[in-house]
Amino acid sequence: MWDPNVFKRTSIWCSDNYVIMQGKWMHSVEDYYLINVYGPQHQPEKSNLWEFLRSFILNHVGNTILFGDLNEVRCEEERIGSSFSRNDAEIFNAFIHDASLIDLPMGGRRFTWMNKTGSKLSKLDRFLISNNVFLAHPNMQVTVLEKVWSDHNPILLHCMNSDFGPTPFKLFHSWFDRNDFDDVVKEAWSGFSNADGGPLLSLNGKVKGLKSRLKLWFSQTKATEVSGVMVAEASVVTTDRLVNNPPHPI
């Protein structure tokens, strides 16, 4: 179930092992493909499912989010107390690679399934996303939640926005070697006037003014240097073309 005011479905594909929904989030331009998977437990059904999903993802342009009980692990460390099939894991990893999916790391717990006695544990559930989803949401995370009724732990996909406050001012040692650095500092420091307030307010105002002036100076200096590099690169390209393709004599 979903809120139609947030996600508008346009198409759907279903089988015993997957439900694929195509649609758009509110304000999004590109299509999203939400692929809910229940992986089979045996071969060749596993390989057939991975091949179908690989082909589907490569033939449908959009943002892919694949999730669910995939009934497969990627390495031996994702199983405890049960047999590990290296061949099945290699086929599964090849599917993830060929479909250009990213396996999001999980927080909260290492495993998502446990039997009744607690003697067998596996990481069977996960979120796999396409690269463009990751670029659009770099703070996306997966958290394993508490288990309630099922023998699987639910997993939650969410975005975590961290605010560490204003970006601190950085003064680089290389600035001291620039010819105009001293002049910029002297001009900014002497140009500040404080009509009101005591010495502390005056000092605080001067430091703030100096920081702002240095930021502006560095931005302008960097822009000039980048422009010079671009001109030099263009000159090199032009020279290289003349060397490799000299003009025909008249």
Automatic annotation (TrEMBL):
Q: Which organism is it from?
A: Artemisia annua (Sweet wormwood)
PANTHER family per the UniProt record, alphabetical: BNAC02G09200D PROTEIN (PTHR33710), ENDONUCLEASE_EXONUCLEASE_PHOSPHATASE DOMAIN-CONTAINING PROTEIN (PTHR33710:SF64)
What this protein is called in its record is: RNA-directed DNA polymerase, eukaryota
InterPro entries named among the record's database cross-references: Endo/exonu/phosph_ase_sf
A molecular function annotated in GO for this UniProt entry is: RNA-directed DNA polymerase activity
Classify the source by domain of life.
Answer: Eukaryota
Q: Which UniProt keywords apply?
A: Nucleotidyltransferase, RNA-directed DNA polymerase, Transferase
